[in-house]
Amino acid sequence: MANGKAGSKLAPRRVNWSEWLQQTVFVGPGLIAFIIIVLIPFSMGFYYTFTEWNGLDLANAKWTGMDNISRILTDDPRFWQAFWFTAKFTLAAVAVTNLLAFLLALMLTQNLKSRGVLRTVFFLPNVIGGLLLGYIWYFIFVRGFGAIGEATGIGFFKLQWLGTPETAFWGIVIVFVWQTAGYMMIIYIAAIIGVPKDLLEAARIDGANRWQVLRSILLPLIMPAITICLFLTTSNAFKMFDLNLSLTAGGPGHASESIALNIYREALVNNRYGLGTAKAMIFFLCVAVITVTQVWITKKREVEA
Fold first, then answer.
1. Which residues are paired to 63 by β-bridges?
2. 290: buried, middle or exposed (CB in 10 Å: 19+, 13-18, 0-12)?
3. What is the DSSP letter of 59?
4. How far is CA 60 from CA 56, 57, 264, 278, in A?
């Protein structure tokens, strides 16, 4: 009896040890990588936010307290110009990207013979790297559109697409949408395919037209996909760097400089790493607040089939 009781007491410990070992084996490597790649650099960046450092000699990192934050908030108009440019770009890019992606998804869930090929074609721009894509479109805007404008006389192609603040803004938006819409389209297609067909058929039998089916049935049921796509496009638009660098390099002047490019130049070009890190922390907090708010709002509108 004593041995039976002892065995029954030891059994749970063996199960717990086995579970702990499994969690360590499967979760441990990922956790270690997360700590080394994300957590430690983030903690170091938080520390350097309050220092004056050139990014090279750790021994010369001078603690300055809130001086960097105060300087950004009161005496850095270029940072705030970049911030408002990025905010306007994000609003335009998110709206146009998701609208186009949703329309493409609606079209490519119909009975089209070439829908498989079209899905691949629309998705391909997402595979091309941002810098390479930017240089390709730089050639298109400068040389391609110019040649078409001279041959046809159409004013749209004669515009200096990367030469004025207004056209440079919309040029970057066009390239971002062209690159991103295909990926969002795939997410919307998966959501639309997952909508129960009997609900759509019942609505049509009851006399609902296409707009009513779209507004009252389809959109509420694919709201989880809308939440994901809005989150991805918002975060990617705020962090946009490669397209900005390759298309306009922030020009003309600094009119189209994104906040990511501004931080890069402050830290790695001007060698003011402490000030650049402080800007990155402010940027991180703003993006976190905006994306969390967006997810919270859209999550509340999700329904279940």
1. 51
2. middle
3. G
4. 9, 6, 21, 17
Cα distance between residue 171 and residue 240, in whole Å: 14
Q: For residue range 103-118, list pLDDT tens digits in order.
A: 999 999 988 888 889 9
Residue 194 has pLDDT above 60, yes or no: yes
% helix / strand / coil in the chain, to the nearest 5? 80, 0, 20
Residue 52's DSSP bridge partners are: 62
Q: Is the pLDDT of residue 2 over 80?
A: no
State the distance between the two ends of the chain, measured CA to CA, in whole angstroms: 55
Q: Which residue has the higher pLDDT, 210 or 226?
A: 226
| DSSP class of 33 | H
Helix (H, G, I), strand (E, B), or coil: what is residue 51?
strand
Q: Are 239 and 262 in contact (CB under 8 A)?
A: no
- Of 120, 121, 118, nearest to 110 by C-alpha is 118
Q: What whole-number distance in Å separates Cα of residue 221 and Cα of residue 192?
A: 8
